[in-house]
């Protein structure tokens, strides 16, 4: 009997031996992963964002030539609530010198307290470096300000190198103290706390002392008849303010009460390295630091090296590393290091995030190039007589304000596009946790789209067409930018799952903020593309509506995206949440508990409309008995269960029959 069912005796801890029955709960499949090009942010490191403002904080806004920000913005505008974002960069990655040179570097002149031959109270000048956390020209706008202040002044008795501490004053080891006394400079001198210790006075009372790097009196420790000197001391700390001068998305970081010695628990270099999103220490710092001129005040950084954007060096290997998809670990980051340093990058790194269920690569067709100059011919001035036309003047060249990324040509470079997208689908097939959302290459006619479609046969991939145009809110000219449709589709899928449930087909929703499309599709084109399994955004009076939710599988059982995602969810739930049953005694009770837990999960999904059938017996079955688990199978340590479900498929067609009788009445069935 458990302690709850009987009277308890003496106070104490009682163990409740009851074991909770296994229970399975559905997992979320509305979390998307985006891989692309951004002007700033961590490289090859997935960052979780829950809103568009989070993306702006890490990766900036819509500036830069990449399409990643437009896709993420479309996802959140469509109703998505969580995504992982990964910024790609050229190979080689940091800490290669080429990658390090792409980071901006700033230096600040301070003083070093422990330099050989230095003035013990003032130190010697030294320059400490802070480099931008990530590569890019954005780092050139950074500014760093150091402010040194003293706090918590107290009086103490100095006896040689030991400073008796009053009650409640215990500066940690590594602190820097400014000590004032009649024999010291008016501004005081700086001393480092090497350690804290306890001492017993002549009356037997014990107290804490700070062991300094040298005696405040400048001589030998007091002994014999020399009495300790009374000094006034205060702890010197630094406040570092890092400002990003981006006019569109300014960022500010402030780190207060930083220690100046390496042994301090909040040493400035360690705190900035661990907590700052903008800067990181450049190399090892020269020991304990002091204000630059021996007086408490402030110091500003100076730029030494501007950061650079390496857009021109980004290639297909930036998105997909050298490791073949079949050699990547299946679940989680375990084993990723075995593939080789710096090789699991881009899409391969994002595929290891177990939360991701929708994978979009809006810049997969990336091919960087300088902007193509446009030409403009001056208008002809009207004349009153006819005469031979003079030779036309040289056209005026108009250069855009910034370079842009050029996409691979779908006509001439279709094999390269297929290679990249097939590699992405192969990764999704291996992981079996997410669906790769592909973008049909822009500019392809319907017949060419059919040839492109023939290269894929997977239920872990879905294709969307055409590219949609959106207008950046800060663009004064209100020019439309064509965005891959997969970002809109990911938001529709996520919103539909959260609002209606996983069994509902993620379609029949308008693309948020889409004002135009890269191609005009007629009714016949949409019909042909639908039969090919291409999910089309159809132009309607109120916008562009996603008309279907199919995969690129030729298997009719996995043609619907909702069915594929439902089966993926069931596999993930049973694979992950049943691991706790390992090493349990294989008994009929365990078989019954597993069967009951699975039935409870499927029953909840059935009531939510996930399965077809008028009864539960028609919708699903669960078998786990002695027929599936004979003695020889149990001897191998196995527990076998068979689960069958009949997924409900979304309704795609409404057939209306209109009949008119002889009397003129109309019946619609």
Give the total of beta strands.
Answer: 32
Structural class: alpha+beta
- On the 0 to 100 scale, the average pLDDT is 84
Radius of gyration: 34 Å
Low-confidence stretches: 219-225, 333-341, 370-386, 392-404
Principal-axis shape equals: globular
What is the count of DSSP helices, taking H or I runs of 4+ residues? 14
Order of strands, main sheet, comes to 2-3-1-17-22-23-27-28
Largest sheet: 8 strands, mixed
CATH class membership of the largest domain: Alpha Beta
What is the CATH-assigned architecture of the largest domain? 3-Layer(aba) Sandwich
Our measurement of the CA-to-CA distance between the termini, rounded to an integer number of angstroms, reads 65 Å
The portion of residues forming beta strands comes to: 25-35%
Question: In CATH terms, what is the fold-level topology of the largest domain?
Answer: Rossmann fold
> Helicity range of the residues?
10-25%
Q: Any idea how many domains?
A: 3
Strand-helix topology:
Blueprint: E1 32-36, E2 47-49, H1 52-59, H2 68-78, E3 83-87, H3 97-101, E4 105-112, E5 124-132, E6 142-159, E7 162-164, E8 176-180, E9 189-200, E10 206-212, E11 229-244, E12 251-258, H4 268-275, E13 279-281, E14 289-290, E15 298-300, E16 302-305, H5 316-319, H6 347-350, E17 358-360, E18 366-369, E19 374-376, E20 396-398, E21 404-407, H7 414-431, E22 435-439, H8 446-453, E23 461-465, E24 468-471, E25 480-483, H9 486-499, E26 516-517, H10 523-531, E27 534-540, E28 543-546, H11 561-577, H12 588-607, H13 616-619, E29 620-623, H14 631-635, E30 642-645, E31 658-660, E32 666-668
Parallel strand pairs: 1-3, 1-17, 17-22, 22-23, 23-27
Antiparallel strand pairs: 2-3, 4-5, 4-14, 4-16, 5-13, 6-7, 6-11, 6-15, 7-10, 8-9, 8-11, 9-10, 11-12, 18-21, 19-20, 24-25, 24-26, 27-28, 29-30, 31-32
Helix pairs in contact: 2-9
Organism: Streptomyces flavotricini
Biased composition (Low complexity): 373-387
Region (Disordered): 210-230, 372-398
